[in-house]
Write a structure and sequence with these properties.
The chain is mainly α and 85 residues long. It contains four helices and no strands.
């Protein structure tokens, strides 16, 4: 472990395991991020003339976006009903 990390751990009074847990962040790819990635793939494919690939990736982006929208609306409705109780 580097000297800077050891000094930081000592300053905050944490041990090595607590420090490692605090600095590790899980990498999460949400459905919306995948939809945006597929949209970008579709735009780049269309720009270079790959029309079949552009259409397929646009369809995937649409499906992922609609799945995201349905999940968002369901959780929004559930959140509003739980808050009223």
């Amino acid at each position: 472990m580097s000297g800077g990390a050891a000094a930081l751990m000592e300053r905050h009074g944490v041990n090595r395991i607590e420090f490692a847990v605090a600095i590790e962040r899980p990498r999460v790819m949400s459905i919306l991020k995948w939809a945006v990635i597929m949209l970008l793939v579709s735009l780049v494919a269309a720009l270079f003339g790959f029309t079949d690939l552009a259409a397929a990736s646009a369809d995937v982006a649409k499906v992922l976006f609609y799945i995201f929208l349905v999940i968002f609306l369901v959780l929004l409705v559930l959140g509003m009903t739980i808050l009223r109780r």
